């Protein structure tokens, strides 16, 4: 079943002669259980695309459906509620809250309006299952990059969203911690969840079911095993 269906996405930055059309009719389909890697040169619009799919930003044209619901054309308020329920986002630089412990960071989304009452217990289970018990008791500055990123993935998964989006999640990690994060992302692609990872690392592409390349504002299928454009 298609969890993500984006059609004809257009996004321009700047205006007049400085206008730059970064996305120009991009289509993306991702099924449940699938991990899709998006590759492409720096500045081609990969982050922009992920932000549109994750409802952090809006396209000028095109449609986006996530888990059967339209993302485009909602009010700001409806969008933020939508994001909380449907999207988990992982960033290159983790974005954990420095004043909070690992556990408090993971549980942060469970304190937002609309979170199920069972969510904190689920979050603690997730921490245990991912082997993050020690990291969860510490603050981010006491942790390695890999531990911080695994906590960030746990935080993105705590409300059990149907879509997990990760923007260069291993870009700041060494080989070994990067591999642990990739394992985690791979295992997050369960029967009812789709995972999209932006990357320029061959190892990320290698663990994905499919790789697509962003060129000239559109996504194209990449040859298996290739990291076209990276
Ligand atoms: N908020 C913004 N305002 C103006 N230009 C932007 C903005 N965000 C991104 N861009 C530009 O759009 C292009 C695509 O950016 P981005 O999506 O970050 O690419 P990528 O993630 O593939 O490196 C780049 O040229 C970038 O400078
Ligand atoms: Mg980027």
UniProtKB/TrEMBL annotation:
Pfam families, sorted: ABC_tran
CDD domains, alphabetized: ABC_MJ0796_LolCDE_FtsE
UniProt-listed InterPro entries: AAA+_ATPase, ABC_transporter-like_ATP-bd, ABC_transporter-like_CS, ABC_transpr_LolD-like, MacB-like_ATP-bd, P-loop_NTPase
SMART domains named in the record: AAA
Domain ABC transporter, chain residue ranges per copy: 4-230
Entry GO MF terms: ATP binding; ATP hydrolysis activity; transmembrane transporter activity
Entry coiled-coil feature ranges: none
Presence of keyword Nucleotide-binding: yes
Cross-referenced Gene3D superfamilies: P-loop containing nucleotide triphosphate hydrolases
Protein name in the entry: Unannotated protein
